Amino acid sequence: MNNSKIWLSSPHMGGNEQKYVKEAFDTNWVAPLGPNVSGFEHDLENFQNDDVFVAALSSGTAAIHLGLILLGVQAGDEVICQSFTFSASANPILYLGATPVFIDSEIDTWNMCPIALEQAIADRISKGKKPKAIIPVHLYGMPFKVDEIKAIALKYEIPILEDSAEALGSTYKGKKCGTFGDIGVLSFNGNKIITTSGGGALVTHSKKVKDKTVFLATQARDNAPHYQHSEIGYNYRLSNICAGIGRGQMEVLEKHINLRREMHDFYVDFFKDIEGVTVFQEPNADFYSNFWLSCIVIDSDKLGKTREELRLALEASNIESRPLWKPMHLQPIFSDYPFYGKKVSEQFFENGLCLPSGSNLNEDEKGRITNALSQFFK
Ligand SMILES: *Cc1c(COP(=O)(O)O)cnc(C)c1O
């Protein structure tokens, strides 16, 4: 049996990516614009449905940065952000000189706790500052409690920047993640459910906002024969080469979601008789996850073994696994900013592990994973 590395989530090409890339070369559209960029945007708009407009950008982080600018966030403002996430959700707040206010998770979805969110908003307002935006995250593909979070945002009239970087194809009450916020964000980084080798997108319900996004992402050139600028511009547009990869990936997205969900079923089945291990699952039928990553939480008292022991055991079999995201309020770079909640996310971080979840894992590799897990839990 071959013992090559089993990755957590590696790129999985569908087959037609190189056709679109070759077309770009053949027609000399080797630039951050061209038919693949508009074609990829069109594919994403069709997939997301719900009358959205999509602007393809160089990364999900760029989409969050521009999203905050479009929502009017400026230096000195406060922006609410889910603490249990990847740092890219929060870094753009600092790019703008604004202050992040972190919110803990709730146990059902692992995402932003609506109760802690409302407490935070009330407290920030009582301290004299109303937050400018809310960044909830569909972590690992699991939708956050959209109705509850939206009701609070509406009540206090604060816009939502929906970080759907991990949740392309996930749905809440039948609607696609990435379409719920005032602005939505997608990512096509190398380890995401589809990849353009690096890329992202901003999702909006307004053609005007899309046009403004493209304007800001292409150095904010005013309409003049010479180069004229009256706003700060950015170089954030997606390349036509990368967009070609994206068009190929869109052809297999639905298939890859099903394969990720099958990987999740594989772990549910494996762990069903193992006491002390909980597989992260959808709380009810309103939630449909793309299961970008399959995750477990270990009760080390019950099990007599820790998350870290499991991680090392898998590593010894050349199988990659990774602790859940370390919450932002525990990160050295963010530790001085306000945090609201009961440290639910800290428990997840201490006891949780992401397991290999790729849509490209074959039967041989699944067998190796089963063997390594069986060894550890026997
Ligand atoms: C990947 C990711 C991002 C950033 O996307 P990039 O395309 O890597 O810049 C933002 N938020 C979350 C939750 C992510 O997982």
Describe this protein's structure.
By secondary structure, the chain is of the alpha/beta class. The protein folds into two domains: 17-252, Type I PLP-dependent aspartate aminotransferase-like (Major domain) (Aspartate Aminotransferase, domain 2, 3-Layer(aba) Sandwich); 254-377, Aspartate Aminotransferase, domain 1 (Alpha-Beta Complex). The chain is 38% helix and 14% strand. It is built from 13 helices and 15 strands. It has helices at 17-26, 35-48, 60-70, 91-95, 114-126, 146-156, 207-217, 240-250, 253-271, 300-303, 307-316, 344-351, 363-377, and strands at residues 53-57, 78-82, 99-103, 133-135, 161-163, 171-172, 175-176, 183-187, 200-204, 277-279, 287-288, 294-298, 322-323, 339-340, 352-355. Strands 1-9-8-5 form a four-stranded mixed sheet. Strands 4-2-3-14 form a four-stranded parallel sheet. Strands 10-12-15-13 form a four-stranded antiparallel sheet. α1 (17-26) runs antiparallel to α8 and α5 packs parallel to α6 (146-156). It is globular. The chain starts with 16 loop residues before the first helix and ends with a helix. The structure holds pyridoxal-5'-phosphate. The site of pyridoxal-5'-phosphate has 14 residues, from α3. GO terms for molecular function: GDP-4-dehydro-6-deoxy-D-mannose-4-aminotransferase activity; pyridoxal phosphate binding. The modification N6-(pyridoxal phosphate)lysine is found at residue 192. The active site is at residue 192. Pathway: Bacterial outer membrane biogenesis; LPS O-antigen biosynthesis.
